Amino acid sequence: MGKKQESVEDVPCGNTVAMVGLDQFITKNATLTNEKEVDAHPIRAMKFSVSPVVRVAVQCKVASDLPKLVEGLKRLAKSDPMVVCTIEESGEHIIAGAGELHLEICLKDLQEDFMGGAEIVVSDPVVSFRETVLEKSCRTVMSKSPNKHNRLYMEARPMEEGLAEAIDDGRIGPRDDPKVRAKILSEEFGWDKDLAKKIWCFGPETTGPNMVVDMCKGVQYLNEIKDSVVAGFQWASKEGALAEENMRGICFEVCDVVLHADAIHRGGGQIIPTARRVIYASQLTAKPRLLEPVYLVEIQAPEQALGGIYGVLNQKRGHVFEELQRPGTPLYNIKAYLPVIESFGFSSTLRAATSGQAFPQCVFDHWDMMSSDPLEPNSQAGNLVTEIRKRKGLKEQMTPLSEFEDKL
């Protein structure tokens, strides 16, 4: 950064300039052009390799500062392309960032730069989880619509390895040419080409790593309820059956549909809640599991500090997968995986255990399936689900399968 500001008439290519007075028209990024150029195209938005997986709730110490907080959050969301600011249904203001340090910087900016020093209260950091399934549903589940005239049959199964990541990376998505998408799915993931053309949608937010596939044969009026099923799926995949966390890596197969002959009896009001219930039922019959976010940690340290590093990583459920000595130096490069939920205070604990000789760098790497069953109340995943539900103000006990599945 330069030490002083100067106004200039024009700037040659390859320089960075600051422009004033545009902030009200721009959300996170935009392309500026002069009006004469009619064929200008927007430059693509940056895609980040990390996800905002650590969240905190913020509120004002003094209630009268609330307008400052709302305005400050808007400005923070514009100033940092990575940060996500949302308002929960409960009215909480949530800030999501890539990690503990990123959030610390965002909160400092929010308080000092965007709110003029007004005091805020910050909750403990909360980690986002994802819900997935381990195997195909043990049976085809069925749910009836509220008027009992329509029935949806569905199964859930986990996606093939690497498919969720391909959707995240944008290699496969809802806007692709169906033929090109079918080719990738059949060649790389072993899908049947005809089946690959029958994907109804992706979700949540129409681009997420879950999908609905039509497996029906010869069903009347199916296209009329497609939009309603998709709407129910978007709702369900955003708030899963375990703890209302986003789903990930689940493929829902519509096996059969029985519909009333009159269009008035199969409208959105009948189909959307039914689709949501049948999706939850198929998730719960397919061995549901929790996915936790995992950091890739890179640590540089001398040989005598290695014992302390391994000790801290074992204590925090981390595991080392690479240890290399840097040629010509006494330093070692260590790479390890560390669950995000265990990462709070990791840097300070590590420095204390190695007398300040180890320097960790954490970056979000992948989602890892928790081995314990969340349906067992005293398992690690079960306790996590209870904690998440308590935090969200839901009933601590999960809604049983019988609430979502109907019998003929």
UniProtKB/TrEMBL annotation:
Keyword Lipid metabolism appears in the UniProt entry: no
**What are the entry keywords?**
Cytoplasm, Elongation factor, GTP-binding, Nucleotide-binding, Protein biosynthesis
Q: Which SMART domains match?
A: EFG_C (SM00838), EFG_IV (SM00889)
| Residue stretches making up the Translation elongation factor EFG/EF2 domain | 171-287
Q: What is this protein called?
A: Elongation factor 2-like
Q: Where do the Elongation factor EFG domain residues begin and end?
A: 289-378
Q: Does the keyword Protein biosynthesis apply?
A: yes
* Annotated Gene Ontology cellular component terms: cytosol; ribonucleoprotein complex
Instruction: Report the source organism.
Output: Ananas comosus var. bracteatus
Recorded hits in PANTHER family, A to Z, give: EUKARYOTIC TRANSLATION ELONGATION FACTOR 2 (PTHR42908:SF10), TRANSLATION ELONGATION FACTOR-RELATED (PTHR42908)
Q: Tell me, what's a Pfam family for it?
A: EFG_IV
Q: Mind listing the GO molecular function terms for this protein?
A: GTP binding; GTPase activity; ribosome binding; translation elongation factor activity
